[in-house]
Design brief:
The chain contains 6 helices and no strands. With 121 residues, it is mainly α.
Length: 121
């Protein structure tokens, strides 16, 4: 009897723990918006020097937000998007340094940075 109660309690706790991180809102739909990479302002045919400056600017902002304790401990997903933007922009920058425009990473950098800004305000 006690074993059955314990097993039931574990199942209930496991089911409720999957939603513990979503303290404010379900942000799943927002994450899926970066699946469409056509709307990026970075993926346009810009000069590579200007494009590099834009990517570095977004990457620097993302690094600053990802290191800020205020956003690390926030219930908003700002830290997550800053971390994603930091990685995507870093990869895009690496490709740009070698003279290659990786459209996917440029678009992800732009999209994740926009998500970060959206949840900061």
């Amino acid at each position: 009897m006690i074993r059955a109660i314990f097993t039931g309690a574990v199942i209930v706790l496991a089911a409720s723990a999957t939603h513990a991180a979503d303290l404010v809102v379900d942000y799943g739909a927002v994450a899926r918006q970066c699946d469409t990479l056509d709307a990026s302002s970075l993926a346009a045919g810009q000069d590579i020097t200007l494009l590099t400056k834009e990517v570095v600017s977004r990457m620097d902002q993302a690094v600053a937000v990802a290191d800020d304790p205020r956003w690390i401990s926030s219930t908003r997903p700002t830290f997550v998007w800053a971390s994603e933007a930091k990685v995507a922009c870093g990869k895009a920058y690496g490709y740009l340094q070698s003279g290659w425009r990786d459209e996917d990473y440029l678009a992800k950098c732009d999209c994740f940075h926009a998500k970060m800004l959206r949840f900061m305000h």
